[in-house]
């Protein structure tokens, strides 16, 4: 067992270490996404903390999600005009324009960090014009989430195959009525997740049991809705190709935050595999990714390989301790980091990033960094 640096030491202990465990530090003292996790670990009770934090098995996938960004180096360019980079962040996803190439990944049981649960998530997303993808296992009902939406707000909705076609059709109709514009079909959870940390507190997956889902079933789902259906949980280039062949308008590279199967590749590793073996996929369809994203630089590394937009879940679950203001602050921090990091890489337009801005075949790629 080697020591694992879950979060870089950037001095939060020195600054906020005297905060009592039952109080939240002032939001103005939060300087980055990892700070919300530091707060949550001290503030939440063991059951709630363990539900959000858990990974599968020995949590190697969880750690690797965080650490793999640290193995890839940038190749920044200098003396280019970057003064308009902030204005370049707008990103169009499934035909709708948002303020950044960043979105909020779906997670269940948001009530564990705030009584208003998903209502804060959807409201914060609206105020910052960021895509929010609601979990099918949200604490609030879809009607409640829908009622909290701003007029015209575009949301995505996550789907697990857990019932009959009639149940699925009813859910899709509800999503459509709620103004949902895309379905994210979670495909990485065919079996239950082996979650030791969560099992100790009896808060393992909400989606347990064995799930029937095949590529034919994926195609069949297209008969039940006209919304784009994006498979969430793609982890190999083979499956990325099968998704294209099945007519998917997009794919979502994800390992469920390392919560389903231990020893699976991080999003960065999967994106690299697709980049090396079938780079045309990034042009053919929209590619989304998440897992361990905590800094603007993580977003940029995935985008350099061709990923269109990048998500995070746990940081938003923890930011929700502060309600809507926490969600807004988290989204503002990420947007700002993406912009200033892109500027320091010499990018006048964040969407011009490509693989020449990262060092492929770096000797540290296969080694541990921390
Ligand atoms: C507490 C929690 C609950 C989650 N619930 C769902 C879910 O209901 N559906 C789903 O597709 N993914 C779910 N996920 C996975 C996230 O959508 C996302 O893929 C992953 O957490 C990203 O990694 P990150 O938490 O390191 O950002 C959940 C993740 C967490 C942490």
Characteristics of this structure?
single chain; 370 residues; alpha/beta; TIM Barrel; 8-stranded parallel barrel; two-stranded antiparallel sheet; binds flavin mononucleotide
Written description of the protein model:
The protein is 36% helix and 13% strand. It has an eight-stranded parallel β-barrel, surrounded by six helices. Strands 1-12 form a two-stranded antiparallel ribbon. Strand 2 and strand 3 form a beta hairpin. By secondary structure, it is an alpha/beta fold. The chain has one domain: Aldolase class I (TIM Barrel). The structure holds flavin mononucleotide.
Structural class: alpha/beta
Number of DSSP helical runs: 15
Order of strands across the biggest sheet? 4-5-6-7-8-9-10-11
The CATH architecture: Alpha-Beta Barrel
Topology:
Blueprint: H1 12-16, H2 33-43, H3 46-53, H4 60-67, E1 73-74, E2 91-93, E3 96-98, E4 102-104, H5 117-128, E5 131-134, H6 142-147, E6 155-159, H7 165-177, E7 180-186, H8 196-199, H9 215-221, E8 229-234, H10 237-245, E9 250-253, H11 267-277, H12 281-284, E10 286-290, H13 296-304, E11 309-312, H14 314-319, H15 323-344, E12 358-359
Parallel strand pairs: 4-5, 4-11, 5-6, 6-7, 7-8, 8-9, 9-10, 10-11
Antiparallel strand pairs: 1-12, 2-3
Helix pairs in contact: 5-15, 13-15
Bound molecules: flavin mononucleotide.
Flavin mononucleotide binds at residues 51-52, 65, 105-108, 135, 137, 158, 186, 232, 254, 256-257, 259, 290-293, 312-314, 317.
């Amino acid at each position: 067992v080697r020591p694992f640096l879950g979060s870089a030491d950037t001095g939060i202990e020195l600054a906020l270490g005297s905060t009592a465990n039952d109080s939240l530090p002032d939001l103005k003292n939060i300087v980055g996404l990892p700070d919300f996790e530091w707060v949550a670990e001290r503030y939440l009770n063991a059951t709630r903390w363990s539900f959000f934090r858990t990974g599968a098995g020995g949590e190697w996938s969880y750690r690797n999600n965080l650490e793999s960004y640290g193995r890839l180096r940038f190749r920044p360019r200098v003396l280019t005009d970057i003064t308009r980079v902030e204005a370049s962040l707008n990103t169009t996803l499934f035909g709708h324009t948002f303020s950044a190439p960043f979105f909020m990944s779906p997670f269940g049981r948001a009530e564990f960090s705030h009584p208003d649960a998903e209502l804060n998530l959807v409201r914060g997303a609206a105020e910052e014009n960021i895509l929010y993808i609601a979990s099918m296992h949200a604490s609030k009902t879809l009607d409640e989430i829908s009622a909290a939406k701003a007029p015209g707000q575009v949301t995505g909705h996550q789907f697990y195959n857990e019932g009959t076609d009639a149940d699925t059709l009813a859910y899709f109709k509800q999503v459509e009525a709620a103004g949902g514009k895309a379905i994210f079909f979670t495909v990485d959870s065919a079996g239950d997740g082996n979650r030791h940390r969560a099992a100790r507190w009896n808060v393992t997956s909400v989606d347990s049991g064995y799930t029937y889902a095949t590529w034919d079933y994926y195609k069949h789902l297209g008969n039940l809705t006209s919304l784009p259906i994006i498979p969430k949980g793609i982890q190999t280039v083979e499956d990325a190709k099968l998704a294209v062949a099945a007519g998917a308008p997009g794919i979502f590279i994800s390992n469920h935050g390392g919560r389903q199967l231990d020893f699976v590749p991080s999003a960065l590793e999967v994106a690299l595999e697709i980049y090396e073996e079938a780079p045309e996929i990034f042009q053919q369809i929209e590619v989304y990714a998440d897992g361990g994203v905590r800094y603007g630089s993580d977003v940029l590394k995935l985008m350099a390989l061709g990923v269109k937009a990048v998500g995070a879940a746990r940081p938003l679950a923890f930011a929700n301790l502060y309600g809507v203001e926490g969600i807004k602050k988290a989204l503002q921090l990420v947007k700002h980091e993406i912009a200033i990091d892109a500027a320091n890489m010499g990018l006048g337009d964040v969407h011009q990033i490509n693989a020449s801005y990262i060092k492929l075949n770096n000797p540290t790629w296969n080694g541990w960094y921390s």
